[in-house]
Amino acid sequence: MSEHRKHNAINYIEFPCKNPEAIKSFYSKVFGWNFQDWGEDYISFSDGSLEGGFTTAESVHPGGARVILYSHDLEATSASVKTAGGVIHKDIFAFPGGRRFHFLDPDGNHLAVWSE
């Protein structure tokens, strides 16, 4: 992961996928992305300037990419999301590399926020 993380900025993008091996082959051949496996249902990628991941833990559907923002203070950002009218979709949880939560914005867009 990049060491240059800006508070409350887009930091990561996540896509659902059905076939991780096909995804890795496609994006590495077409765009030169690098991948790292994180267990059976997650792979991360780097395109040289942006990082993201593909997960088989969620269904593939149109508009399936998830924008993930970074926060220095996950609890404070979660509280701000609630105060501003967002809905916490998935409470703060740990994952390899940090912690995060998912939320729905007032229009129902599904985003996430993470921290170490």
Write up what this structure looks like.
The mean pLDDT is 88. It contains two helices and eight strands; from the N terminus they run βαββββαβββ. It has one domain: 2,3-Dihydroxybiphenyl 1,2-Dioxygenase, domain 1 (Roll), CATH 3.10.180. It has 116 residues and is an alpha+beta fold.
List the helices and strands and how they pair.
Elements: E1 10-16, H1 20-31, E2 34-37, E3 42-46, E4 51-55, E5 66-70, H2 74-83, E6 87-95, E7 98-104, E8 110-115
Parallel strand pairs: 1-4, 5-8
Antiparallel strand pairs: 1-5, 2-3, 3-4, 6-7, 7-8
Give the CATH level 1 class.
Alpha Beta
- Class computed from helices, strands and strand pairing: alpha+beta
CATH-level-2 architecture: Roll
Shape: globular
Provide the CATH topology.
Answer: 2,3-Dihydroxybiphenyl 1,2-Dioxygenase, domain 1
- Averaged pLDDT, please? 88
Please give the number of β-strands: 8
- How many domains, as an integer? 1
Lateral arrangement of strands in the main beta sheet: 2-3-4-1-5-8-7-6
Helix fraction? 10-25%
Largest sheet: 8 strands, mixed
